[in-house]
Design brief:
- This protein is of the alpha/beta class.
- It has 3 domains: 1-42; 44-268, P-loop containing nucleotide triphosphate hydrolases (Rossmann fold); 306-339.
- The protein contains 9 helices and 10 strands.
- The strands form 2 sheets. The protein has a 6-stranded mixed beta sheet, with helices on both faces. It has a 4-stranded mixed beta sheet with strand order 1-5-2-3, covered by helices on one side.
- Strand 6, helix 4 (155-169) and strand 7 (174-179) form a beta-alpha-beta unit.
- The protein is elongated and about 105 Å long.
């Protein structure tokens, strides 16, 4: 009881100084944040960005300099981080569609741009050789969604909500990151929604700065997504080589260069990623056969196994007997029914 009364009395006395304590805590927190940003900038060789009223975004990696444009978190867990430039002007290349294989660095690049823009607006130095960043009023992201029991929505519905917010609220001063939208539904629905959204942004007098990563190769077709000065395509560079003595899709020698270049690439090298993840070779080989047959427009043959062969032979024999059965003869029907036992 005495301890409770002492604590109560102490709290009452401290409450008299609450406004002063709140201001002191706020100042200490701000100083701690500024010191942390300064130490990080000095330790990781960040540079001072240039914030401008011009609605542009230019991030340069430099030439042969260690102070390059990079992802501030990823560089801490990899041996060598490959930097990339970003250039968006007021009148062109404000909508950039990025294609490329799995594990090639598309998502990391877009997050890198968003982090640099955010750091510049909170007063921090940024991980780049040089950065000219136009004032940005919002950063919208459609990156990774997870199901949650607290949110009565599916993953795709969450993705739609995030994209819908971009369409409603995005201004020319916004930065939008769209990563793999549409993978939670049918490919046709995903392609249609993403194409319509990109077309809407491209039709604006001054679109927001938008980076969109996708595996939808249909977007590369001009009739589906009409070309315009505000729309540009990029891909993550990859070196791929198929051994001359192998027809398997996953035995290609793939080297990820993590370098952003102009153009587009449709192959995702998903089988190579499955091989890297340790999936069984027979499963990957079967997947390669199915993909090859689909691309050639040929029927997919059933996997041959002893049990399947025996069952197929029995089915064929039963079908042959039924086709030769005279259904108009009750005697033949009864004889067949008495003599034939259908096995499960």
């Amino acid at each position: 009881m005495m301890q409770g009364s002492i604590c109560t009395e102490l709290i009452q006395r401290l409450c008299e100084y609450r406004p002063h304590l709140n201001r002191a805590v706020a100042v200490a927190a701000e100083v701690d944040c500024l010191i942390s940003l300064a130490l990080a900038a000095r330790e990781h060789h960040y540079t001072r960005p240039l914030l401008t009223k011009d609605n542009v975004l230019h991030i340069k990696q430099g030439m042969g300099d260690v102070y390059t444009c990079r992802h501030m978190l990823t560089e801490m867990v990899v041996d060598n981080y490959i930097p990339n430039d970003t250039h968006m002007n007021e009148d062109d290349s404000r909508i950039q569609v990025i294609t490329g294989p799995n594990l090639s660095g598309k998502s990391c690049y877009t997050k890198q741009v968003a982090l640099i823009v955010f750091l510049a607006h909170v007063g921090s130095f940024v991980p780049a050789a040089e950065a000219t960043i136009g004032l940005t009023d919002r950063i919208f992201t459609r990156i990774a969604s997870q199901d949650s029991v607290s949110v009565p929505q599916s993953t795709f519905m969450i993705d739609l909500s995030q994209l819908a917010m971009m369409l409603q609220l995005a201004t020319p001063r916004c930065l939008c990151i769209v990563d793999e939208f549409g993978k939670g539904t049918l490919t046709t629905d995903g392609v249609g929604l993403l194409t319509a959204s990109l077309h809407h942004f491209a039709s604006m007098p001054v679109p927001p700065k938008l980076l969109a990563c996708t595996h939808f190769s249909d977007l590369l077709s001009q009739p589906i997504l009409r070309r315009c000065p505000q729309l540009s395509f990029f891909t993550m560079n990859v070196l791929a080589e198929t051994p001359p003595d192998s027809d398997s899709a996953y035995t290609k020698k793939v080297v990820f260069l993590y370098n952003l270049v102009s153009g587009y690439a449709a192959p995702s090298f998903g089988l190579n990623c499955a091989h890297m993840a340790g999936m069984r070779a027979d499963i990957i080989e079967r997947a390669a056969q199915v993909i090859g047959l689909q691309q050639q427009g040929k029927p997919i043959q059933q996997i041959s196994a002893p049990s399947h062969a025996q069952r197929e032979a029995w089915y064929r024999s039963m079908i042959s007997d039924l086709l030769s059965l005279d259904c108009k003869s009750s005697e033949a029907v009864h004889r067949y029914m008495d003599g034939g036992n259908v096995e499960e």
